[in-house]
Design brief:
Strand content: 25-35%
Number of helices: 9
Helix content: 10-25%
Strand order of the largest sheet: 7-9-8-10-11-12-13
Largest sheet: 7 strands, antiparallel
Order of helices and strands: EHHHEEHEEHEHEHEEHEEEEH
Radius of gyration: 26 Å
Mean pLDDT: 88
Structural class: alpha+beta
Shape: elongated
Distance between the termini: 46 Å
Length: 328
């Protein structure tokens, strides 16, 4: 399958979503030039095997290794490549609606624009304003007719980011996928069908741990609402942490009758203290349309964090009946 390479599929997906800040960046700050290390030209390796063999096993190490290209030796004319190999992270949609992360190896044969960009020099550093983000740096190797390979440095601009010419050349590469393997699940088919996130934080515990006071009053709950229930299990290793992450267990739209029963229990609930020393092993998020949420603990202190108006969240005490209605 032919596809165009995109910078956003190169490094770790979560990290690229927000960029990467560099210490010392800021308005008017002088940006140090790149410190190119090693020999004058990229090291020539005997035989290309695969991305799996060349890349570090840990994904955080892969991200760090990709950005090392900003300080590696730049390409000269001593090596004559005939193809480029791109090692990248991708997202694959499953037929059942879920998605998974993949490690992909792709090959490009038309290198005209890429080689021209890789042979550009670094721009002189600047004392002008530079943003604190760092665009994704692709993990690219060049292969010659004898299957020898080099990993060239990426030329940088005045803010020590990949030059625009390189970014455009890379984004314009037409690649053929050589291999692809699943490295992890992003969203299960069940979570996608339910309309729930695969993971969600226990916001009742998180908000209560901030030391907030329960000063607000419970706002009116809509009599009729399009409501969705998402239930999450909290692993023992997450319980009691600053922001416990729960994994999807079950969920889906609530019927009108179920919402009416849940609404009645929440409306009749008593105020609860935000403080709690018994982390929940399970919680539910009830999402209301056009707006508002109920975060309900299945055990532990069995609190409700109701956020149904423009004011702060309100802590209430759950009941046996509400627990049965929400968790079964």
């Amino acid at each position: 399958m032919r596809m165009r390479a995109t910078t956003t599929t190169v490094a770790l997906i979560a990290l690229l979503a927000g960029g990467c800040a560099r210490p010392g960046d800021g308005p008017g700050a002088a940006v140090p030039g790149p410190q190119r290390s090693g020999p004058a030209a990229p090291v020539v390796h005997d035989r290309w095997e695969s991305c799996d063999a060349a890349l570090p096993k840990d994904q955080m190490d892969q991200f760090t290794a990709a950005h090392e290209a900003l300080t590696m030796p730049l390409l000269d004319d001593s090596f004559q490549p005939v193809a480029a190999v791109v090692c990248r992270v991708g997202i694959r949609q499953r037929p059942g609606g879920g998605s998974e992360q993949t490690a992909e190896e792709a090959r490009a044969d038309d290198l005209t624009a890429l080689l021209s960009a890789l042979r550009l020099p670094d721009e002189a550093s600047t004392a002008e304003i530079c943003t604190a983000d760092l665009p994704g740096v692709p993990w690219v190797v060049l292969v010659d007719r004898d299957n020898r390979w080099v990993r060239p440095g990426v030329p940088v601009d005045a803010c020590v980011k990949p030059r625009t010419e390189f970014r455009k050349a890379y984004d314009g590469l037409v690649t053929v996928t050589v291999s692809s393997r699943v490295t992890g699940q992003i969203e299960s088919d069940e979570a996608a069908t339910a309309g729930c996130s695969q993971t969600y934080a226990d916001m009742t515990w998180t908000t209560g741990a901030m030391g907030s006071e329960n000063k607000g009053t419970l706002g009116p709950l809509p009599e009729t609402a399009s409501a969705r229930r998402c239930v999450y299990d909290v692993p023992a290793s997450e319980r009691g942490s600053g922001k416990p992450a729960g994994g999807f267990r079950a969920g889906g739209p609530l019927s009108a009758a179920d919402w009416t029963a849940i609404r009645a229990e929440v409306a009749a609930s008593e105020p609860a203290s935000p403080a709690c020393d018994q982390p929940a092993s399970r919680f539910a998020l009830v999402q209301l349309e056009p707006g508002g949420t109920l975060n309900i603990e299945a055990d532990g202190c069995r609190r409700i964090l109701a956020e149904v108006s423009d004011g702060p969240g309100v802590f209430r005490t759950s009941s046996e009946r509400l627990t049965k209605l929400v968790f079964g």
